[in-house]
Amino acid sequence: MMADSEARKSVLSDPRREWSFSKAINETVNGSHEFVIKGYSLAKGMGPGKYLASEIFSVGGYDWAIYFYPDGKNPEESPGYVSVFIALVSDGADVRALFELTLLDQSGKGKDKVHSHFGRGLETGPYTLKYKGSMWGYKRFFKRQSLETSDFLKDDCLSMRCTVGVVQTRTEGPKPYVSTIPPSNMDRDLKELLDSGIGSDITFKVGEHCFKAHKLVLAARSSVFEAQFYGTDADRNLDEIEMEDVEPSIFTAMLKFIYSDELPDTHEILGFGLDRLEHLLVAADRFGLDRLKILCEAKLGEEITTDTVATTLALAEQHNCTQLKTVCLKFAAAPGNLAVVMQSEGFRYLEQGHASLMSELLETIAEVDEEPTLSRKRSTSTNIDLNFNHSIDGQNGDSRRLQRRL
Q1: Contacts (Cβ under 8 Å, ≥6 apart) of 169
Q2: Are strands 202-206 and 240-243 parallel, antiparallel or unpaired?
């Protein structure tokens, strides 16, 4: 006896022996579906075995449905009761699941009627559905006479919630060593490359300021720079460019975007005022930085006001910013905004040089005017004149006064 015990100890403590480990994990994948029955009284009298079915819903890779029997599932076992069942409606064999049926209290008191497998010990374990069409539920879910005088029925409407927990088993073995992978810091590294000027091969002179950069990085991000540095007619020895029509702060912001792919903070980088963001959009369009242009577009669209919408609209038209243009037109045409917009300096600029935009604004006003809005009262409408000092339809020098009734 002593010899056997010593032998077992030697086997267990043998450092040369290889050991393995695994575990089986049983868990449920849960999902819920709410089923509302409107016109309950019209469903009465369908007859035993006749049911109302919910839409099919999926939980745990299987499809399910709720069946509500207003006159009971069968006359022998459920006379005077409503029956409720949950059915497996997709193909499956021996699907093990937990269920919960809740009849919702519509009085606001929270006294729901709950039948649940969850949260309690089960002598026989989860319920097993053998095949497609298998059901779990209650033939005597609720006495019909009591149901019709309860808080569960309100405005001839019943509401119930079904929760299904499909049992799934998975096996886990020992996990290999996994090192912690830090987040990407490429944007930081590239910004440091820009700030340090290491390896730079091009200098931009912007006013009194000089900016060192890297041709390959610029060309990879901008088709305009690619053509300038590596196109057919490019000067391969070019090492300095004098930039015109762009401010140093705007050029700084653009370079930081090229190296980091992030829109600079409008206050920290550009200074206060959305006009700086407008200048950045112009630069993005000039150098083919489509993502930067869209980011500027989105930010400007969030910040438009009755004072700025007209000038922003003109900017959007000039630089083909379709989404921003649409936002501006709809904002300006809104009944509560139009009268104020027409008093702005930007609107006078539109009148003087943007006949096509004025025409589009009229079309947008008409669309807004025609939208069916119950709260709008036509009897309190206002007459607003839109003055054009140039032709809208090609009749040169012929000023026209168009009137819209809003």
Answers
A1: 24, 25, 26
A2: parallel
Q: What is the pLDDT of residues 285-316, one digit of tens each?
A: 999 999 999 988 888 888 888 888 888 888 88
Q: Find the helix or strand (DSSP H, E) in which 83 lies.
A: strand 81-88
Which amino acid is it at 21?
Answer: F
The rounded distance, in Å, linking the Cα atoms of 303 and 305 is 7
Q: Which domains does the chain have, with CATH numbers?
A: 25-170 (2.60.210.10), 185-289 (3.30.710.10), 304-372+379-406 (1.25.40.420)
The structure tokens 């849960």 sit at 30
Q: Name which of 85, 84, 115 is nearest 100 in CA terms.
A: 115
Q: How far is CA 335 from CA 96, 291, 322, 405, in A?
A: 59, 33, 22, 11
Q: How far apart are CA 153 and CA 106, in angstroms?
A: 7
Whether the CB-CB separation of 171 and 25 falls below 8 Å is answered with yes
Q: pLDDT category, 357, cuts 50, 70, 90?
A: confident
Per-residue pLDDT of 367-406, as tens digits, reads 766 555 444 433 333 333 443 333 334 333 333 333 333 3
pLDDT digits (tens, 9 = 90+) for 81-90: 999 999 999 8
